[in-house]
Design a protein that fits this description.
With about 350 residues, the protein is of the alpha+beta class. It has one domain: Thiolase/Chalcone synthase (Peroxisomal Thiolase, Chain A, domain 1, 3-Layer(aba) Sandwich), CATH 3.40.47. About 30% of the residues lie in helices and about 20% in strands. The chain is built from 8 helices and 14 strands. It has a 5-stranded mixed sheet with strand order 1-9-14-13-12, sandwiched between helices. The chain is globular and about 55 Å long.
Length: about 350
């Protein structure tokens, strides 16, 4: 790794632990299937599926904003927590509703939280983990007892529909969790968080002002696999765990090949690696909490599971964290399951022959 990663959490500080106590997610209703976009890319639907693991992705209507998605996910997370009040709102997004002001204050106001500190952070696909660390810091310092962390991106708005690298990948979504002050030994307590960034390779993934997002695919693949694997090892070690004791691994859902490659590097069998990209696409900062929400709703994630999360995104940024999963209250139907006609309803959506480290 180039440069040290920041490792913080209950193992390295004295104070209350940050405990996840609520979870919510939101997806646009529309699903864009591979068949709808493949002709414009000069490929067929199977070409997209075999290289990305994606069969369809969620797309927000033109009138739906990042803030709209964030409000829906935040409202569900607050309801899941059993308490509509928090002391701060953190919104992880790279697609804010405006260049100025930030989107978080308006989201907080719409959630009935006027006057609460609210701000955006831009760490791309690692944004959720950065947000968790900020929430944990506020709680540990005694500045907040409850924090709402929302990850929301309307990432399709940055995508060139004619670009084979990015057009098949991205979908729009939001997901959120409520974090409260608690004890390090209780379920839901966030373990040490590993965060890092290296701007020297930042040009690998860029969306310039007024332009589309571009990505150097092979370079991004190698960085993502290497950085997430390294951060995952660090987070597990900092938590005092062993990889053999991890029940569920939740990587950022960049594409299915990256997920498979990281799982192999960590020596984790497929049963322990959670996938949720096939019906929603790469949802940027929302992908980890969206996957957690889906797994919790469908029974793949259970209370008491030791969960390892890892992410990689533009910047370049990356990180990892651990948590023993708590028993949360589900709110509403979970979005993002397969729909009749999607033609893909399982975690084997992609062809393993294409899932190589190189």
């Amino acid at each position: 790794m180039n440069g040290p990663a920041s490792v913080n959490g209950p193992a390295s500080v004295i104070g209350p632990a940050a405990v996840i106590c609520g979870l919510g997610a939101a997806l646009p209703d529309r699903r864009v299937r591979n068949e709808e976009i493949c002709a414009g890319l000069g490929v067929d639907a199977d070409w997209i599926r075999s290289r990305t693991g994606i069969c369809s992705r969620a797309r927000a209507a033109a009138e739906v904003t990042t803030g709209d998605l964030a409000v829906q996910a935040g409202r569900r997370a607050l309801a899941s927590s059993g308490n509509g009040q928090v002391d701060a709102v953190v919104l992880a997004t790279i697609t804010p509703d405006h260049r100025c002001p930030a989107t978080a204050p308006a989201v907080a106001a719409r959630l009935g939280l006027p006057g609460v500190p609210a701000f955006d952070l831009a760490a791309a696909c690692t944004g959720f983990l950065y947000g968790l660390q900020l929430a944990a810091g506020l709680i540990t310092l005694g500045a907040a007892a409850r924090v709402l962390v929302i990850a929301a991106d309307r990432i399709w708005s940055l995508t060139d529909p004619g670009d084979r690298v990015t057009a098949p990948l991205f979908g729009d979504a939001a997901a959120a969790c409520v974090v409260r002050a608690g004890q390090a030994a209780e379920p839901g307590a966030l373990g040490p968080v590993v965060l890092a960034a290296d701007g020297r390779d930042g040009s690998a993934i860029v969306a310039p002002h007024g332009g589309f997002l571009t990505m150097r695919g092979p370079q991004t693949f190698q960085h993502a696999v290497t950085r997430m694997s390294q951060a995952a090892h660090q987070a597990v070690q900092a938590a005092g765990w062993e990889l053999t004791g991890v029940d569920r691994f939740v990587p950022h859902q960049a594409n299915a090949r990256i997920t498979a490659a990281v799982g192999r590097r960590l020596g984790l069998d497929d049963q322990r690696v959670l996938h949720h990209i096939e019906h929603v696409g790469n949802t940027s900062a929302a992908s980890i909490p969206l996957t957690l929400s889906h797994a919790w709703a469908t029974g793949r994630l259970r209370a008491g599971h030791r969960v390892l999360m890892a992410a990689f995104g533009a910047g370049l940024t990356w990180g990892a964290a651990t948590v023993v999963w708590p028993d949360l209250t589900p709110v509403g139907d979970h979005p993002g399951d397969g729909h009749p006609g999607d033609g893909c309803f399982n975690d084997d959506c992609f062809n393993d022959d294409h899932s190589r480290d190189d």
